[in-house]
Amino acid sequence: MRTTRDLLLDAAAEAVLSGAEWDRVRMADVARSAGVSRQTLYYEFGSKDALAEALAMREAERYMEGAEAAMVGHEGSPGEAVGAATEFTLTEAASNPLLKAVLTDDSGGLLPFLTTRSDALLTAARERCVAYLSDHWPDLPAERVLLVADAVNRLTLSHLVLPGGRPDQVAADIARLVDSLLPGSL
Fold first, then answer.
1. Residues 24-34: pLDDT tens digits?
2. What is the DSSP annotation of 75-86?
3. Confidence (pTM)
4. Is the pLDDT of residue 170 over 70?
5. Which positions ≥6 away from 169 have C-beta within 8 Å?
6. Do the Cβ atoms of 114 and 122 come closer than 8 Å?
7. DSSP string over 43-58
8. Phi–psi pair at 113, nearest 5 degrees
9. What mean pLDDT is predicted for residues 105-127?
10. Whole-angstrom Cα distance, residue 108 to residue 87?
11. Which end of the chain has the lower number of beta carbons within 10 A, N or C?
């Protein structure tokens, strides 16, 4: 069963996908589309910014789950696993209509959640990457794994916002970088 939160996030996503610039999306319209009162929307999220951040985090969570699944079977080296996750993320992002809408929204209302206000997203992605690498290569130095996970997630996000090559090429480059930064993991 869909929760009220899910219904509200779905309605917010639909508003973005309809071509509306985020700064022109009204909370009352999102609530009406979800079939709830505006008060319920504000109770759930508190503000339009919090709704936007929750929408960004929900989408990021979907990518992180897919990226983790993509790593399974690619445990030859940390770079191989991270490369598989990176390729998945970039390939999926290229065809994601919500991400395309965010990147082309001239108002800049949602883009900051991928750029200047991406702390929550980057923290969540870094923690998952650290957990995966630490579980599969427990002898790697924790501080080095944290540094690599942070760098990889920032690079991947950078390629989402400003694509810089085919996903497989970018993933291969990031895989080589990871393996060079985590010596002794091979």
1. 899 999 999 99
2. -SSHHHHHHHHH
3. 0.88
4. yes
5. none
6. no
7. HHHSSHHHHHHHHHHH
8. -70, -10
9. 85
10. 26
11. N
Residue whose pair of structure tokens reads 């895989």 in the numeric block:
175
Only one residue has tokens 């870094």, namely: 126
Residues with Cβ within 8 Å of residue 65, at least 6 apart in sequence:
none
Tokens of 52: 């936007």
Structure tokens belonging to residue 182: 């985590």
Residue 46 has pLDDT above 90, yes or no: yes
Beta-carbon-side half-sphere exposure of residue 125 (alpha carbons within 13 Å):
32
Q: Place 113 in a pLDDT band, splitting at 50, 70 and 90.
A: confident
Model pLDDT, residue 184: 62
- Token pair for residue 119? 């702390």
Alpha-carbon distance 55 to 57, whole Å?
A: 5
Residue 67: burial class (beta carbons within 10 Å; 0-12, 13-18, 19+): buried
| Domain residue extents for the chain | 55-181
Q: At what angle do helices 142-161 and 78-94 cross, to 10 degrees?
A: 20
